[in-house]
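Entry 0007
Protein: MipA/OmpV family protein
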Amino acid sequence: MPQISRFSLRYNRSCSATIVALASVLVWGSASAQTASTDASTWTLGGGVSVIKKGYRDIDRDVLPLPLISYESKWISASVPTLDVKLNSNENLSMRLRARYAGDGYDTDDSPFLAGMDDRKGSIWIGGAVIWRPQFANLSAEVLHDVSGYSKGVRAKLQVNRRFAFGTFGVTPRLGVEWVDSKYVDYYYGVKTSEVRAGRGFYQGNSTANIEAGVRLDYSIARRHTVFFDVRSSRFGSAIKDSPLVDQSSETGVSLGYIYRF
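Output (structure tokens):
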């Protein structure tokens, strides 16, 4: 019976981590669909595998299945785990209402060091986003608020990417910065007085900014069939690196998969 319980907890945490991986990979799937006419509706289906290493102390890497699905139309852009409602959209500029699930946090059995901590849960974030596509790159910005009531925090992100095409092969580097407020840092990386243990002191978070970088390689094996490899890293700001729960300066992820566009 204990073995079943441990499996259940592990499975739930893996599901949350899968959502995080999808957020990274499916940005590209949606962006690709957006290059079509704004009046067209397109679907993308696929799958793959992702390896994620969070920054928490003594936490293991997760090797996870990666189901991929997205939908794009004149008014809707949807991909697990993001839903956008387009308020105003054309080939160069798109203003949106955005809802997203983010699998941040941990279960206490994820690491021996986290024993005695309360679970930190993933949240639904709602806010606004802008995507601008000048000729030289794709630029995006978003501001989101945690409406699940766990951290009650705010996060804001700026990102730039550009795809360089070489026949059927493509390379898409990206660079971004994400600011998170003190409520976010305190919830996911803070230590409450009731959680203090030997070697784990009280910690109250402050706002900080994380630097994110990644690159995606894609290859079109046929007209509607594409395989991709994606690697990313998020370097933590000082308020997260200073947390006693963290023993790394960054979080990393690698994904490999296949997608089919209808």
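Curator remark: The helical segments are 2-34, 182-189, 238-241. The first strand starts at residue 42 and ends at 53.
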